Amino acid sequence: MILEILDQRIARATRQKVFRDAAEAGTWIAGAHLGRPAVGRVMREDKAYGYEPA
Q1: What is the pTM of this model?
Q2: Residue of 20, 19, 21 whose CA lies nearest to 31
Q3: What is the mean pLDDT of the chain?
Q4: Disulfide check for 23: which of 8, 44, 48, 51 has CB 3.0–4.6 Å away?
């Protein structure tokens, strides 16, 4: 149980850092699970992040 909680916290922190860094740098990302087009940018939207397709 404790490992699951720690894994969730680490996963959440990792996603937040990746999204923040990608949004700040304007980095293009690609992912097979994103649908078409699968290439775009992460954009900051208020307190959340959005996806802007290419």
Answers
A1: 0.72
A2: 19
A3: 87
A4: 44
CA triple 19-22-23, angle to 5 deg: 80
| Euclidean distance between CA atoms 50 and 9, whole angstroms | 21
Reported as half-sphere exposure (CB side, CA atoms, 13 A), residue 7 has a value of 4
Say how far apart CA 53 and CA 34 lie, in whole Å.
Answer: 9
* Token reading at 27: 């980095």
In terms of Cα–Cα distance, which of 10, 8, 41 is closest to 23?
41
Q: What are phi and psi of 49, to 5 degrees?
A: -125, 150
Give the β-pairing of 48-53 and 39-45: antiparallel
